[in-house]
Amino acid sequence: MNIMSITLATLFLVPAAYAADKKPMDGMPMDHKGMNMQMDHKSAAQTATATGTIKKVNTESGTVTIAHGPVKALGWPAMTMGFKAKPDQLQKLKEGDKVQFDISSQGMDSTVTRIEKQ
């Protein structure tokens, strides 16, 4: 066998050997005693206050995009992200407005509960 054949054989056999080593976890007993986690797979809503700058207002989808500073209460770094908001909250906002806002965040859903221009 030449070196090329050995190399090709290795490249094909290693993934197969790795897959054969993995065992399914179905039916494995797991003890969750002492673990402080909610078992319904939905995290509790968290609230926080932040400041930022309006980047986009979309009244049709009911969202506002805000570039905000770090949100320590939620462990978020500074970033730009979209939030759900009520139509009456969106009507008074425009791109470039500096705002302070309260949010309720649950999993990947974040909603503005209060927003005021600075």
Descriptive overview:
This protein has 118 residues and is of the alpha+beta class. It has a domain at 46-117: Copper binding periplasmic protein CusF (OB fold (Dihydrolipoamide Acetyltransferase, E2P), Beta Barrel). It is built from 2 helices and 5 strands, in the order αβββαββ. It has helices spanning 3-21, 87-91, and strands at 46-58, 63-68, 79-84, 98-106, 109-117. It has a 5-stranded antiparallel β-sheet with strand order 3-2-1-4-5, with no helix packed on it. The chain is elongated, with a radius of gyration of 25 Å.
pLDDT < 50 stretches:
35-41
Question: Which word captures the global form?
Answer: elongated
CATH superfamily of the domain at 46-117: Copper binding periplasmic protein CusF
Q: Secondary-structure element order, as H and E?
A: HEEEHEE
User: Class of the domain at 46-117, according to the CATH hierarchy?
Assistant: Mainly Beta
Largest sheet: 5 strands, antiparallel
Helix content: 10-25%
List the total number of helices. Answer: 2
CATH architecture of the domain at 46-117: Beta Barrel
Pfam family, one: CusF_Ec
Region (Disordered): 29-49
Keywords: Signal
Biased composition (Basic and acidic residues): 29-43
